[in-house]
Known about the structure:
By secondary structure, the chain is an alpha/beta fold.
Amino acid sequence: MITKLDRSSGRVVGFTVSGDVAKADYDVLNQGVESALSESDTVSVLLDLTGFHWEKVEAWGADLAFGHTYRKRIDRMAIVGDKKWEEHLAHLAKPFYAEDSAFFADADDAWAWLERGAQ
């Protein structure tokens, strides 16, 4: 499941990614990013993966389409998590999902990094 976070504001938008992600979950992600892009040419995105389990095979195409559609319009992507593979995912995000990406163990640190870049 993907849920937009209430702390999202302006061109900085955050999401909780939890459980198993299905293709339809990308509608929430796409709509949230599109909404932020209506206010700015680029956006910053936070993905909190601490409750994430896995992505269903049916969602892989939607995941790739998201990267292809928004990669040049996401200037920063913060990955929040508590596992080593999530840290590695932040490095993979840079060429496929965002101009710049970073891993954070603390969500407040991630929000601060994104908000500094949005100024």
